[in-house]
């Protein structure tokens, strides 16, 4: 992607990921900038009105009834940003901050916030220069938007606070702007409020998580298929006509993946005849399309909500299409917070099923003739015993992360803001859950790969064979005496979260994986 064009319409999830994660530059649509200019004229007209207008000639929040004289309004806007940049804790990741800034810019370009074009142009310049404001972990309640995170970003465009430059060096914002040839903003009426009143932080985290989870759902179908091979399971339960009896979309997609991944698998075919006396596999093998599919459907719902939010102009007050400036509650993060929490729940459940498949490999009572713990010399070697502990610990942590943040609320701003979404917190814990999920799947991949190797001379399918080869060529060794396992787990996790495992499997498959 050469450039993301930001105009009056919605940016896509793909646009967010391109700018946030891959440093794609931004171009502002000239027609949309003309609309920004036109909407600013409305604000300028209201600024001279002796009657108070919220955010233009009044204070904020619980101070909304306080009229501010015209000669103090520039100070009002700057003071708003400075006072609200009150975050605390460790720095938030660069990609989250870039996503947040892009989404705030997208709202500014709708022409519904009443800022001057220079404000949008400055945001685009800061993003394109690779300047990342320092945003702290704690500070947002997800109502009145992600106030503290957005304020830290706005503060940097004023030439205040700290940032990291394109090389990641920490420095004062004024120095970074000067080096990039960017003139610091001097805010006018309404502009400070327009820069901090949105769901952009939680929405940015949602867009990134959806992207990662869609890829990980393909990957966990791959790891499940490898477990089915290594545990001598059957692929008959993934037949299309069986899944047509329950037409859940995601379930059908996962079942299709499993059929395609296991196609032409000598291991599966070796015991597919009538001489195989087992009636049915354990749930963690047999029901994987149902669980993986339910997660897929949840991700699809989250993507629908994210698409609506990406098309939104979230500000308060907002400039309507017919020129009114109206207070509203669109900044409340509930719709985004709910799906962020929902995704953490399904990620925990899918990871739990993955860990159960890993555990089956290590128990000689359930692993169909493999050595205990897949150890090289039983009794001397522990094999992958403690790798399963790691997966189990990650799953338990994910269960804690699945407790909804959005079920909580705490009043703020002298009870004016008496119900909040906690959407920022939902996004923060989902990021941890996605990372943990990738590691649980990685441990299943390395365990299943070892189990399959121990089935020689039987061979895996072309798809799973390609995945095993990729693991082996990237530091995840095959069966053998005990060795330092942590580097292998980290290597497998990197291949998983980067999307490399899914890409290799897709290249080896004769049909598209979903």
UniProtKB/TrEMBL annotation:
<dbReference type="InterPro" id="IPR005921">
    <property type="entry name" value="HutH"/>
</dbReference>
<keyword id="KW-0456">Lyase</keyword>
<comment type="similarity">
    <text>Belongs to the PAL/histidase family.</text>
</comment>
<protein>
    <recommendedName>
        <fullName>Histidine ammonia-lyase</fullName>
        <ecNumber>4.3.1.3</ecNumber>
    </recommendedName>
</protein>
<dbReference type="GO" id="GO:0019557">
    <property type="term" value="P:L-histidine catabolic process to glutamate and formate"/>
</dbReference>
<comment type="pathway">
    <text>Amino-acid degradation; L-histidine degradation into L-glutamate; N-formimidoyl-L-glutamate from L-histidine: step 1/3.</text>
</comment>
<dbReference type="InterPro" id="IPR024083">
    <property type="entry name" value="Fumarase/histidase_N"/>
</dbReference>
<dbReference type="GO" id="GO:0004397">
    <property type="term" value="F:histidine ammonia-lyase activity"/>
</dbReference>
<dbReference type="Pfam" id="PF00221">
    <property type="entry name" value="Lyase_aromatic"/>
</dbReference>
<dbReference type="GO" id="GO:0019556">
    <property type="term" value="P:L-histidine catabolic process to glutamate and formamide"/>
</dbReference>
<keyword id="KW-0369">Histidine metabolism</keyword>
<dbReference type="InterPro" id="IPR001106">
    <property type="entry name" value="Aromatic_Lyase"/>
</dbReference>
<dbReference type="GO" id="GO:0005737">
    <property type="term" value="C:cytoplasm"/>
</dbReference>
<dbReference type="InterPro" id="IPR022313">
    <property type="entry name" value="Phe/His_NH3-lyase_AS"/>
</dbReference>
<dbReference type="InterPro" id="IPR008948">
    <property type="entry name" value="L-Aspartase-like"/>
</dbReference>
């Amino acid at each position: 992607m050469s450039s993301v064009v930001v105009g009056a319409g919605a940016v896509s999830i793909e646009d967010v990921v391109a700018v946030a994660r891959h440093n794609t530059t931004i171009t502002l649509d000239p027609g949309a900038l003309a609309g920004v200019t036109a909407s600013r004229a409305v604000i300028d007209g209201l600024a001279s009105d002796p009657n108070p207008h919220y955010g233009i000639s009044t204070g904020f929040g619980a101070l909304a009834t306080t009229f501010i004289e015209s000669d103090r309004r520039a100070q009002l806007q700057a003071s708003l940003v400075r006072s609200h940049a009150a975050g605390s804790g460790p720095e938030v990741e660069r990609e989250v901050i870039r996503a947040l800034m892009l989404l705030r810019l997208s709202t500014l370009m709708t022409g519904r916030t009443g800022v001057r074009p220079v404000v949008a142009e400055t945001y685009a310049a800061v993003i394109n220069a690779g300047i990342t404001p320092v945003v702290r972990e704690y500070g947002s309640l997800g109502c009145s938007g992600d106030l503290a995170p957005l304020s830290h970003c706005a503060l940097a465009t004023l030439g205040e606070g700290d940032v990291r430059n394109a090389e990641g060096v920490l420095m004062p914002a004024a120095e970074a702007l000067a080096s990039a040839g960017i003139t610091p903003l001097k805010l006018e009426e309404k502009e400070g409020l327009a820069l901090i009143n949105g769901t952009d932080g939680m929405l940015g985290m949602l867009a990134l998580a959806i992207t990662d989870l869609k890829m990980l759902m393909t990957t966990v179908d791959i790891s499940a298929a490898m477990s089915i091979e290594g545990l001598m399971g059957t692929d008959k339960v993934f037949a299309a006509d069986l899944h047509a009896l329950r037409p859940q979309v995601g379930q059908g997609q996962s079942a299709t993946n499993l059929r395609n991944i296991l196609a032409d698998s000598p291991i599966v075919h070796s015991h597919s005849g009538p001489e195989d006396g087992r009636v049915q596999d354990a749930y963690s093998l047999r029901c994987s399309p149902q669980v993986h599919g339910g997660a897929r459907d949840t991700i699809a719902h989250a993507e629908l909500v994210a698409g609506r939010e990406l098309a939104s102009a979230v500000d308060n007050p907002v400039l309507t299409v017919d020129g009114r400036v109206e207070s509203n509650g669109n900044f409340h993060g509930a719709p985004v917070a709910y799906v962020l929490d929902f995704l953490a729940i399904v990620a925990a459940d899918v990871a739990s099923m993955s860990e159960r498949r890993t555990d089956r490999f290590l128990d000689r009572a359930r692993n169909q003739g493999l050595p205990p713990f897949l150890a090289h010399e039983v009794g001397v070697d522990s094999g992958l015993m403690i790798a399963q502990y790691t997966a189990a610990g990650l799953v338990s942590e994910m269960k804690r992360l699945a407790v909804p943040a959005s079920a909580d609320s705490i009043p703020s701003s002298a009870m004016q803001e008496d119900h909040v979404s906690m959407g920022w917190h939902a996004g923060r814990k989902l990021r941890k859950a996605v990372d943990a999920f990738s590691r649980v799947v990685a441990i299943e991949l390395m365990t299943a790969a070892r189990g399959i190797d121990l089935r020689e001379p039987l061979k895996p399918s072309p798809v799973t064979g390609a995945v095993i080869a990729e693991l082996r060529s990237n530091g995840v060794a095959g069966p053998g005496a005990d060795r330092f396992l942590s580097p292998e787990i980290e290597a497998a996790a990197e291949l998983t979260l980067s999307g490399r495992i899914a890409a290799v499997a897709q290249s080896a498959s004769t049909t598209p994986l979903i």
